[in-house]
């Protein structure tokens, strides 16, 4: 039995992941720190009044509702959630609480950037899932930008050891997004979020058996994005790509294109 603490946010997708992890019989969630959604990207974009970005983010929220609402509403919650203000996970009071709870592992998904002393206290025992394929895409929006750039093969999730860099920790395991005919960007993204739970649970429960993996070489075309890069033009390009047949083109060339973006596959983590 692994005693863990989860660090996450409070959007519907985060609620889904924490509750799904906590259902595993071999995982005991001592506490989940859920950062408030106040000041979310959607809130900020609404204040800006950019209708294109507002429509995109509202569509994402509607898709999340379709994927995750029933699970979240009807599944027992064994994750022991505690809501905290956004950005305050590094405050001393939470550090002391976490240390006193004495977890085996810290498990992050979508929380604020973690700093010392919490980071160094759990060095080597601090897991993170990055929604993006490192090292090809790092930073923010790392499953948005591959679709803007016409690279669905780079949409995925990276399970890693958390370190002080931005998506630079040692990679444990990766999965690629499953893409189906007729998909929207949000269907691809939310199906991927649903898919991260199984390998994350396996990584947690088999932590002591994980193999140290050879890390991928830094690609010549590495992409690094920040929040300030998100623009109306990029959002327009995303939907133009889908209208122009991005999904069908990718599915027709999938075998070749995915070969060019190899994944780290830990043999301890079994596919479903």
Structural account:
The structure is a single chain. With 272 residues, this protein is an alpha/beta fold. It has a single domain, classed as 3-Layer(aba) Sandwich (Rossmann fold). The chain has ten helices and nine strands. It has helices at residues 12-22, 41-48, 51-74, 92-101, 118-121, 145-148, 185-205, 232-243, 246-252, 254-259, and strands at 2-9, 27-35, 81-84, 105-109, 126-130, 137-139, 156-161, 171-176, 223-225. The protein has a seven-stranded mixed sheet, covered by helices on one side. Strands 6-9 form a two-stranded parallel sheet. Helix 1 (12-22) runs parallel beside helix 3 and helix 1 packs parallel to helix 7. The longest helix has 24 residues, at 51-74. The relative contact order is 0.16. The mean pLDDT is 94.
Provide a compact summary of the structure:
With 272 residues, the chain is of the alpha/beta class.
């Amino acid at each position: 039995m692994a005693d863990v603490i989860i660090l996450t946010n409070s959007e519907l997708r985060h609620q889904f992941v924490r509750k799904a992890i906590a259902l595993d019989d071999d995982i005991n969630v001592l506490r989940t720190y859920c950062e408030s959604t106040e000041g979310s990207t959607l809130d900020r974009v609404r204040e800006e009044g950019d209708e294109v970005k507002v429509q995109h983010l509202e569509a994402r929220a509607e898709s999340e509702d379709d994927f995750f609402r029933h699970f979240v509403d009807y599944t027992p919650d064994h994750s022991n959630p505690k809501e905290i203000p956004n950005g305050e996970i590094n405050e001393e009071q939470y550090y002391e609480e976490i240390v006193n709870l004495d977890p085996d592992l810290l498990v992050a998904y979508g929380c604020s950037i973690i700093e010392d002393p919490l980071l160094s206290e759990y060095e080597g025992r601090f897991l993170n899932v990055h929604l993006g394929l490192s090292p090809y895409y790092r930073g923010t929006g790392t499953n948005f930008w591959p679709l803007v750039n016409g690279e669905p093969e780079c949409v995925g999730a990276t399970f890693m050891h958390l370190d002080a860099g931005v998506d630079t920790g040692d990679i444990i395991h990766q999965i690629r997004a499953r893409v189906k005919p007729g998909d929207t960007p949000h269907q691809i993204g939310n199906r991927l979020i649903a898919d991260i739970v199984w390998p994350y649970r396996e990584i947690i429960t088999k932590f002591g058996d994980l193999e140290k993996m050879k890390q991928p070489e830094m690609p010549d075309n590495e992409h690094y994005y920040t929040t300030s890069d998100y623009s109306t033009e990029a959002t327009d390009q995303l939907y133009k790509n889908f209208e122009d047949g991005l999904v069908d083109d990718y599915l027709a060339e999938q075998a070749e294109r995915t070969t060019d973006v190899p994944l780290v596959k830990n043999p301890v983590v079994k596919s479903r």
